[in-house]
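Worked example 3 (structure in, sequence out).
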């Protein structure tokens, strides 16, 4: 089956029936559950979008195997034009949510493309490279969706902590059989866990205590003994007037519990090979392709926040104040910087030894270490511009009640009626102050992990020789007459 539409996506998710728990109860019909039905509709809209005639050329391409139209996010980029198409397709999807859907399908599709097209790196005595290549091709040809997890439970972050081997907390291999491996323990932060076709489990990175933690695999979301435990849902109301973002784009984050989960060998891509694991990012460049996708989405998100800020300015007519202009200009500068870094990564892209056109990682790393600081500042700017208007926000029902006249009189804007002004300020509130907005801020702050570690990684990986040579030249040069 080639690229799918929204109806097919929902049919598959409904058929899966994975084990998902929320507020102490197991979900029996995820597509109609209050916490999930609207995010699933929003995801379905992405698939419908890609199948529209006007969008198909951008959102799909001809499969190298079947010749059918498949999703652009699965495309192996061989030219800079291919990278541009990947970026534009990501941004086309991101615009449907204002960049608020951080785990749209193209995110993990990009990861799987990078892993699958570097399948030779996974080759060992058991030919596991064939497994990841087949998984990539299966996903591409069937438009599969993936959640993923690569974070261990946050139990004890001290350097001297070691887990009890007999009662594991972090998911580990507890048994190896002729048919596969058995995983027991937990992983964290599987966003959209249980509402995708598959769960991709990636290495946790860093140094491993034992070989039982060295593995990569993908399994269906309804695999026996696989459990997804949800946090509280931030979709509090169905009204898109009251919760314009939370009602549609609440993605849900889950704890993944592996209760002696059996993983067949043909779904294992990496196991008990420290060398392959440690070189995974450098060889497959999956992190670089994820950076490219994420930065493309964050550009759209920044543009959305800029538009929202300017709408607030015009609605309450504060654009003549210099400090207001300065605050909005901060967002403009950030937007143009992110756009420039993204384009720089494509302009300076180079083919790797596998013939893939890989974006320049340096500008992308600069973007991803900047955005965790930029995003909270964007929120602070919106909060400052909106001021008390972000608190004085009656609900949709208030405007349909006997107090409507009071609201129309006292909550009107400089250029709009009270209902429209309130609708705008509720959108800004959902970005800044709601539970959904708070989660978004924390999410962007730690999108690729600890910001300090990311900055250290950029420092250690960035070549500073040219800059030092220039500084040394100036230091040692004679005075110019």
């Amino acid at each position: 089956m080639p690229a799918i539409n929204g109806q097919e996506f929902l049919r598959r998710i409904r058929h899966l029936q994975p084990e998902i728990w929320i507020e102490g109860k197991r979900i029996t019909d995820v597509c109609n559950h209050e916490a999930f039905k609207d995010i699933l509709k929003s995801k379905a809209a992405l698939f419908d979008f890609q199948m529209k005639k006007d969008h198909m050329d951008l959102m799909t391409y001809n499969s190298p195997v079947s010749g059918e139209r498949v999703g652009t996010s699965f495309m192996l980029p061989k030219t800079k034009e291919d990278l541009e198409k990947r970026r534009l397709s990501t941004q086309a999807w991101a615009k449907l949510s204002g960049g608020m859907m951080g785990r749209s399908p193209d995110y993990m599709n990009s990861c799987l493309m990078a892993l699958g097209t570097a399948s030779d790196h996974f080759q060992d005595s058991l030919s596991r490279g064939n497994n990841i290549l087949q998984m990539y091709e299966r996903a591409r040809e069937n438009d599969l969706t993936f959640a993923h997890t690569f974070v261990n439970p946050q139990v004890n972050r001290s350097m001297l902590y070691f887990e009890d081997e007999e009662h594991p907390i972090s998911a580990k291999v507890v048994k190896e059989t002729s048919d596969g491996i058995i995983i027991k323990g937990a992983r964290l932060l599987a966003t959209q866990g249980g509402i995708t076709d598959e769960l991709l489990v990636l290495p946790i990175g860093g140094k491993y205590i034992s070989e039982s933690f060295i593995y990569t695999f993908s399994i269906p979301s309804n695999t026996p003994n696989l459990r997804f435990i949800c946090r509280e849902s931030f979709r509090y109301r169905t009204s898109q007037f009251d919760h314009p973002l939370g009602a549609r784009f609440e993605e849900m984050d889950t704890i993944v519990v592996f209760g002696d989960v059996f993983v067949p060998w043909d779904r294992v891509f990496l196991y008990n090979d420290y060398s392959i694991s440690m070189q995974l990012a450098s060889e497959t460049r999956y992190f670089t392709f994820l950076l490219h996708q994420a930065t493309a989405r964050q550009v759209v998100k920044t543009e959305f926040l800029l538009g929202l800020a300017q709408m607030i300015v015009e609605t309450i007519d504060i654009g003549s104040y210099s400090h207001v202009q300065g605050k909005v200009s901060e967002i403009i500068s950030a937007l143009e910087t992110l756009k420039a870094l993204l384009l720089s990564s494509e302009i300076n892209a180079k083919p790797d030894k596998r013939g893939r056109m890989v974006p320049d990682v340096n500008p992308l790393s600069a973007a991803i270490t900047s955005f965790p600081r930029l995003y909270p500042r964007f929120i602070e700017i919106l909060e400052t511009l909106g001021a008390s208007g972000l608190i004085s926000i009656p609900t949709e029902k208030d405007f349909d009640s006997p107090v409507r006249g009071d609201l129309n009189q006292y909550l009107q804007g400089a250029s709009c009626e009270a209902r429209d002004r309130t609708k705008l300020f509720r959108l800004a509130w959902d970005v800044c102050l709601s539970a959904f907005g708070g989660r978004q801020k924390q999410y962007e702050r730690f999108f690729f992990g600890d910001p300090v570690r990311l900055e250290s990684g950029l420092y250690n990986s960035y070549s500073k020789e040219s800059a030092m040579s220039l500084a040394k030249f100036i230091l040692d040069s004679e005075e110019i007459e």
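Notes: Residues 286-315 form the longest helix (30 residues). The two ends are 73 Å apart (CA to CA).
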